Sulfhydryl oxidase
Amino acid sequence: PEVVVWREFDRAKLYTADLESGLHHLLRVELAAHKSLAGAELRTLKDFVTVLARLFPGRAPVRKLLETLQEWLASLPLDRIPYNAVLDLVNNKMRISGIFLTNHVTWVGCQGSRPELRGYTCSLWRLFHTLTVEAGARPEALDGTGLEDDPQAVLQTIRRYVRTFFGCKACSEHFEAVAEESMGTVKTTDRAILWLWETHNLVNSRLAGHPSEDPKFPKVPWPTPDLCPACYEEIKGVHSWNEGQVLLFLKQHYSGDNLVDTYAA
Ligand code: FAD
């Protein structure tokens, strides 16, 4: 049998390798299911790439690739584009030009104890959380995109991405149902960060004991007390969250400053 090499990692950190492997999968695998893009699909892709280009906190060559893709999509006079044109742009850029995205998949914080567990979906959650946190930290980053001055903009763009492109259909249907119910109540970028955290915990609790649960990474409320003791409060013997502390923790955990390049290609 194939020997799986386990990469040691720190659960309190974010790994560039996870985010870049996830972007590789998103751009070269997930989007590839759509042979041509038009109408609402194309608008969703353009807005999602705009959010990535402005807010992705990773390494410069990847940010440059995302900016190049965003500018190219924005400049297109066409109302329908073949997916292969997107792929060409993503592939033709070379490390030497300072524009580059790995095509290797290296999961670190998103490693699963079996190959079919964790990986892409884990990296996608992490990517989404970093985008909501970056939007709160640097609201001016969205100036001029049409997405500025709207505290829901990043969440709504994530929602449309998930609905349109996320390969797991059961996942996207459930996410859409939650979004329909409560995303509209978000009035600030802080609430946007907390909405995604709460929704993610809702998904965690729904999936506890499900076959997709990795026994090495049980579905429990997150952040666990070891990661953020201050996030926990007890009121009359009942556990509750200290939301102010959770927000501070999320802003620190999902900030660019918490990203480490260990194992990155
Ligand atoms: P994940 O849940 O993927 O989380 C990744 C990392 O985020 C964790 O390792 C932790 O560091 C951090 N994290 C955990 N909880 C939170 C939180 N509340 N807030 C912030 N950060 C957190 N799978 C299904 O089988 N059925 C579904 O219906 C389904 N719906 C999904 C919907 C969406 C939008 C997404 C992105 C994924 C969905 N998945 C679903 C996949 C599932 O949620 C997990 O991604 C997968 O089971 C792998 O879990 P994981 O242990 O890597 O942790």
Summary: The chain has a mean pLDDT of 95.
